[in-house]
Amino acid sequence: MSGSPLIGARAAHPLYGELRQVTPHAAVLLADNPSPMTLDGTNTWLLKAPDATEYVVVDPGPLDEAHLKRIASHGPIAEILLTHGHPDHSEGAREFAELVNAPVRALDPTFTYGSEGLVDGDVITSAGLELRVLGTPGHTSDSLCFVIDGEAVLTGDTVLGRGTTIVAHPDGKLGDYFESLKLLAELPEHTAVLPGHGPELADAGEAARAYLAHRTQRLEQVRRAVEALGGAPTPRQVVEVVYADVDRVLWPAAEWSVRAQLEYLRNDY
């Protein structure tokens, strides 16, 4: 699995190399890095107010020179934001920053370059927009979402456009993920989801509640599997029971989530 592990399938006709306007303030450029884990590829988001001259770029994606040059061709870049540090979102960030002479901002200082980092509650004023930073750990400990108030939330891998994401244990924690989903479920109705992979979704609250229901169901399945397997099974044994209907190429990713679920159950949440 490359970059951030995801569970889903590739679309029949993904649109590579073309900037597609999604909301009044957000357009997407799809990186050509499809896989069972990254769906059609990584969504690089370009944000600006209609009358602004510069963009904010969210998740420049893999170290793909052609993709980075395509992003740069759309205009001056004010700053670069990362939803988290998985390579399919962040690997190209440093080279892109040097290409366009813009800083990189992230929660993890490892990825911050030329500026200060980001924390929950920050407000980024750039490209004619105000972006509110939400700390949403769970998929990873450094996961962030960015809210364009009244319009959309950029969710990285916390909520996907298709399928489900994983909790990347041991860095990701299921308890944290539940809390992050509850936070997203409270966003105003019709706040669109602009995800790191897959198509945009109409309502963040609805998507987050569906994820919560799915995670709760999976957790109960894991609980029952542990009991059926004698109380102390390996994560792989649990995967073979709970994810029996999932393509085996995705079982290593599923095992990360199962490890997180077993830790959650051991801690008696």
From TrEMBL:
SUPFAM superfamilies to which the protein is assigned, alphabetical: Metallo-hydrolase/oxidoreductase (SSF56281)
Gene3D superfamilies the UniProt entry points to: Ribonuclease Z/Hydroxyacylglutathione hydrolase-like (3.60.15.10), Winged helix-like DNA-binding domain superfamily/Winged helix DNA-binding domain (1.10.10.10)
Write down a Pfam family by its short name: WHD_BLACT
- Domain Metallo-beta-lactamase intervals: 41-197
- Stated name of the protein: MBL fold metallo-hydrolase
CDD domains in alphabetical order: metallo-hydrolase-like_MBL-fold
